Amino acid sequence: MVDRLKEIVEGFLSTKSRLTFLTGAGISAESNIPTFRGPEGYWKVGSNNYHPQEMATYRMFQQRPEEVWTWYLYRMGICKKALPNSGHLALVAFEQMLGDQFTLITQNVDNLHLLAGNSPERTWQIHGNIFFMRCVSECKERVYPLPFEIDGKNKGDHFTEKDRGLLKCPDCSGPVRPHVLWFDESYNENYYRLYSSLKAARETGLLVVAGTSGATNLPNQIVNEVFRNLKPIIDINIEQSPFFVPAVKSGGLFLEQKSTVGLEILLEKFRALL
Ligand SMILES: [Zn+2]
Predict the structure, then answer these.
(1) pLDDT digits over 119-138, tens only?
(2) Which domain holds residue 13?
(3) Pairing status of strand 176-180 against strand 128-135
């Protein structure tokens, strides 16, 4: 298997094409950020316990904006305490090594790739970033950092008068929402780099998928696009996912590893062959 990895990396290096990474919750889990699709994501509103797939919707935000904000501030508080791990740092090393040949597409909203040192220009956060907000009425098509006075919440905390005063659009003073893609919303280019990601997939000479099981639509499209172009896919995951078959059939491989370990193995291989 190690020799196969060498062949794949040599093949890629001879093409001088794009190396695209697609990362998901697995890499964040190693920094102690829960997936929020599991039990950690449940949220009590009154006597009801809501599932993350109900909380993370525009529908819920319309009905209970302050509850949805409180839940996001709870999650933001957890992300704020987390530190990048060696997998994140390996991706910074890849960007330094490859420059414009490098693209990082991430489903994670926790900001850890940027905190580790990957550049915003080459890091596309296709599900948004929990430390940012945007105007509900989109008076301007832009995102704003959360005000620094905003604190993370604990379970059981409530939305306060202070939160109410701070969470306003800096341009029109209207209501704001978290800058994240909700389950009942669609990808677009302006906020989520939809077309850029698909273009990157078409230009990719090697795709590396780390810590994601392909439960969402755009990651699937990216993998399919690379597969159709007959380019190899390396899938790093602790268990087989729907990306196992395209990885193996594309002439790539499945690395049954944690993201940190798999990315470090790959980085060593690149360093040895460059
Ligand atoms: Zn506004």
Answers:
(1) 999 999 999 999 999 999 99
(2) 2-32+85-129+188-273
(3) antiparallel
